[in-house]
Amino acid sequence: MDHVPGRSINLAMSIRGLAGLRLVGLEDKILREHGIPMRARMIHNTDGTTRAIPYNKDGKSIYSVGRRFVNEELLTRAESFPNVHFHFNHKLISANLDKGTATFLNTITQEEVHEEAELLIGCDGAYSNLRKQMMKRSQFDYSQQYIPHGYLELCIPATTNGEFAMPPNYLHIWPRGKFMMIALPNQDRTWTVSLFMPFEIYDEINTPELLLEFFKANYPDAIDMIGRERLIRDFFANKPFAMITVKCSPYHVGSTSLLMGDAAHAIVPFYGQGMNCGMEDCVVLNEIMDQYNDDLTQVLPAYSKHRNPDAEAIADLAMYNYIEMRDLVNSKLFLMRKKVDDFLCFWFPNTWIPLYTMVTFSRERYHLCISKKKWQDEILRKLLKVGGIAGIGMGMLFAKTEAAHALSCALIARLTNFTSKTLALTVR
After folding, report:
1. Is residue 25 a contact partner of residue 31, using CB atoms and an 8 Å limit?
2. What is the distance between the alpha carbons of residues 9 and 76, in angstroms, rounded to a whole number?
3. Is residue 326 within 8 Å of 176, Cβ to Cβ?
C-alpha cells in the first residue's frame, strides 16, 4: 500500500534509537534517506501566531522518520543474514516457557505449527501473546492503564508547488490545555498530524459542522492547510485509538523466554521514546550478553533487573510530558524554568543537565534522569529560599553590567556550594 492510514504516528528518533540502528549498520542510511531533523517545538497559538522553543541550548535535533520506512529497512537488513527466516501470518496460541516450545496458528492455512527454540523473545507489542503466557505464572507482576484520551491521524498535504506547508525542521504543537494536536514532517513534504484529546470530546463532535466549529475555535490555522473537505473526510473515516501503559516484571522465564519492547513496557507516545526505548532494549541486551559471555542463565535475570526500573521510569515520564506538551508550554513558569535550566547548564555543563536533554540526547538511564531531576528541583527550592532565583534572573537580564556580573558570580559560587553538599548526600 502507498499509505497505511490510522496508526502511523511518525517516529521521533533520538540517540537511544540511533544507538540500536548503529549496531546493525543502518544509522546513516535511515537518517540520510528518511530522517528530517527537528530542532525545536513550534508552538501554534489560537490567534495564528507561532513561537519556537528549542529542545536544548546546543541546537541538537530529534529526527522525524516514517514508521513504515524504518520497518522496511530493518526487515531488509535482517533478510541479508542467511540464518534469519521470516514466517508471516503466524499467530502464537500457546507456549511452554520453561522448555522453549511454542505453537503457532498459520492464519492462512489454519494449520498449527510447533517450534522449539533455545530462546523465545516476545517482541509482539502492547497486547503480547507471549506475555499472556507469562501472566499465567506465579510471581509475575502486571498492570495496565488506559488514559482517557485517544488519538486520531490527520494529514497536511504538500502545497500546490510541492513544498512543506509549514517550516519543516520543527515538531509543530497546538497546545490547548486538555487536548492538543501535533504534526511531524514527512519526506514527501506532507505532515503526519495527530490529534490527542479525551474520548468524550470526540463523541461530542459528530457532525461536519461541529468539527469545523471546533477547529475554528482551537486550530484555525490548520483548517486551510489540511483542507476543509479532507479534514471532514479523514476525521470521520477513522475512530480514535486508545493509548495504554503496560508495566510488568520480570521480563524473563529461566533462560528460555524474554519480553522486549512494548511487550514488556508499552508507553504512551508523548516523550517520543517508545521506539527509542525498544531499540535501546536491544543495545542493553547486547551489552549484557557481552558481559556474561552469552550465558543465558545469567543474561536474562540480569537484563530483567537492569531494564525494569528504566522502563517503568520512562512510562511515568511519558505521561508527564503529555501534560507539558498540551498545557505547560504556554506557562510562564515553565518557560522561566527552561531559561534557568539552560543558564545553569551553560555554567555547569557536566552537573546541571535539563531533564529533556538527559532523556532525549543521552543514554543516561531513565530512572537516573528522574532522580537527577528531583535533585535539581531540590537545589532550586533551596536557592529560592535565599533569593537565588531572583538573583539569577537579574544576572540574565543585566549580565552586561559589572555589578550584575559580580552578583551572578556570587550566586554561582553559592550554587556550587549547594551542589557539592547535595551531591555528597546523594552519594552516601
Report:
1. no
2. 22
3. yes
Q: Give 367's contacts (C-beta < 8 A, 6+ positions apart).
A: 309, 310, 312, 313
CB 319 within 8 A of CB 326: no
Q: Are strands 120-122 and 257-259 parallel, antiparallel or unpaired?
A: parallel
Residue 2 predicted with pLDDT over 80: no
The span from the CA of 100 to the CA of 141, in Å, is 21
Enter the pTM of the model.
0.84
Strands (DSSP E) found in 40-132: 40-44, 50-54, 62-65, 90-96, 101-106, 112-116, 120-122
Are 115 and 102 in contact by the 8 Å Cβ rule? The answer is yes
Helix (H, G, I), strand (E, B) or coil at 192: strand
Distance CA 64, CA 325 (A): 17
**What are the tens digits of pLDDT across the range 307-361?**
999 999 999 999 887 776 666 656 677 677 777 888 888 888 888 888 889 999 9
Separation between Cα atoms, residue 428 and residue 425, nearest integer Å: 5
Give the N- to C-terminal CA distance of the chain in Å, as an integer: 58
